[in-house]
Amino acid sequence: MNHIIGQIPGSISMLCQLSSLDLSSNKLSGTIPSSMPLLTFLGYLNLSNNNFSSKIPFTGQMTTFTELAFAGNPNLCGTPLVTKCQDEDLDKRQSVLEDKIDGGYIDQWFYLSIGLGFALGILVPYFVLAIRRSWCDAYFDFVDKIVKWLLFKRRVTYAKNHTRRQ
């Protein structure tokens, strides 16, 4: 116990090389700064037995710490603690609703259009070539000419490369 009183400053994320932080059993209060998840080198954290309040910023590096790192703070809530925040259920319901409104239907139409585009891209040329025999003959004559031209170019390039080496 160091008898530290006050709050963790928001500028703590400036200590980017910080690998261990033990502020347990002090008289710290306020919220855990939202910049704490930016401490990517932080391997050990203990904020237990203080007087922190509000929701834990459980993102980034903070997801690697267990409930023990935050225990003993009666007004602290959110993951990884068992105590859920009051607005957490509302946030979940609102995010699900936003996903349905914003992303769900857009995703559904996006994937539907990809499937239809693929099917039409394959089937339309097939049916056109199957129905119009003259178009089918012209198409495959064209493909044959392209293949012969590519093979000829390959032979010429191969011959040039081998005559230069000798």
TrEMBL record:
Keyword vocabulary terms for this entry: Glycoprotein, Membrane, Receptor, Signal, Transmembrane, Transmembrane helix
Pfam family, one: LRR_1
Transmembrane stretches, start-end: 109-129
Cellular component GO terms, alphabetical: membrane
Domain of life the protein comes from: Eukaryota
Coiled-coil region list: none
Record keyword Glycoprotein present: yes
Membrane topology category: Single-pass type I membrane protein
Subcellular location: Membrane
Protein name: Receptor-like protein 2
